[in-house]
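step 4 of 6: structure.
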Amino acid sequence: MSDRITAADVVKVAKLARLDLTPDEIVRTTAQLDGMLEHFADMDALDLDAVVPMTQPYPLHNVFRDDMVVIGLDHDEVLAAAPRSEDGRFWVPPIIGLDS
Amino acid sequence: MTAVPTSAAAIAAGVRSGSLKAVDVVEAHLARIADREGEIHAFNVVLADRARAGAAAVDAMVAAGGDPGPLAGVPIALKDNMCTRGIPTTCSSKILDGWKPPYDATVVTKLAAAGAIAIGKTNLDEFAMGSSTENSAFGPTRNPHDTSRVPGGSSGGSAAAVAAGFAPVGIGSDTGGSIRQPAALCGVVGAKPTYGYVSRYGLIAFASSLDQIGPFTTTVHDSALLLDVIGGHDPMDSTSIPVAHAPLTGVLDRGVKGLRIGRITDLPAGADPDVTERLEAAFDALREAGARIIDVQVPAFSYGLTAYYLIAPAEASSNLARFDGVRFGLRVDALDTNTMYSATRAAGFGDEVKRRIMLGTYALSAGYYDAYYGRALKVRKLIHDDFARAYQDADVLLTPTSASVAFPFGSKGDNPLAMYLCDVYTIPSNLAGHPGMSVPFGTGADGLPVGVQVLAGTLDEATMFRVGAALERCAPAVTSAVALHGSAS
């Protein structure tokens, strides 16, 4: 087992990614990510210091449109697709205050 | 009933002239679907009633002296990651099961405006993550040439639908080869245009800097025809290239005399002998047609897999954050929002999607960003620059599309990397943003189809299609899966 990634790393990343992983999934994911990161080490052979990162394939910058009102998505149609809505809004359980 | 032609161009010509009825075209394809869909599972949903109504409307327009457009009466199989208003759009994921989008993707709107008829939404690897459709939450699609084998992926449903004669045209998306690889494995033509050529508005995002929409067809001419319809600038997609594209259907007869065809001498090894034999035959055929074969090097090509499997999951981990149970799809109820997010995503996403979200989140997280995501972006630049040098010497590059013919279900086992290696020849052009297409070029092991990949520089679809058309003209005749398995029409 290499030390590229540990089960503790996987638990932390799962929390960041908002994914509940089972203990079994944590073990499997740790092994699989480790195998991938080992493969990805092939790029360690490259001298990349002077290379500029490329984030997009086609050089478009600051794409604007005229500041005019256009018709957007239908409010009721959008809310109809939600798991739960109330009074014209998305309904979610409490975000804070459960502990108090 | 009049015999229905196989190509979209011939169908549209017949329907526009009144010699062919769109309703008959649709019935013929629905009959083939009824005959073999149970075995193939190309579709997540077949839109039989809507297609019949759409066809009747097309026929009525022709009868009234109108012109429905260049795809009049042509049935289209849409990959189920393109939004269709009021029609379920699932990405073959449980997390979107039952969701009906409140809008149409731009490609869907353009196809309808050209007279095309959506006949169904096709199966895919969940959120387009995979190379076999085995990752679909709704079960795999089977290859019409041999149902014990995969159709490729992620757009396996669209490729299989076209190969099985369920539709003359399928629409797919290609993030790392998801149009070209299944096209090769199913023996049809698959094209991924330049990044920004086709609007991504309404395509549910996997990796936004890599995703691009393109067609599956039985002929190169149909492929050009489809791109002429769905290509072009769209203000709804800020990465859409704001230039007008010259029609590709006009370049197909120009031949390849004098064109420089690049052979990549440092291409990653690993292609099966039957595949390399077909590639060599393709080089020979183009040479005989008047092209010159030039040796080129693309040293960074072999690092494509690493760059891609860091960049694509990183972008995916961000894009898929929107599936949280608040606005659409599945929700697992909980007492607070954080618990609801985590429980919903755990229940809604499949293993491969979770794996890529984890990998992407890791590559972007504090302490690892520079070592993984940051370095991958630099490798991406190297690949782009190496291609640019190669295209100074060669007009197009020719490679295998897939290292092997269609493989049996389950043969990649539990090792995700084995599946990722399927995309080794297709990934680099996504990273560079370049166009690529797969053209069937005979058969390999077990009589299964082999595709040859044509790659070109940014917005040089015209040269790519000239070469694609030349390859098609000299390709060995292959019995189609429709002819092989009979047809109900």
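step 5 of 6: annotate
 - Chain A touches chain B through 51 residues (CB under 8 Å).
 - Residues 23-40 of chain A form the longest helix (18 residues).
step 6 of 6: archive
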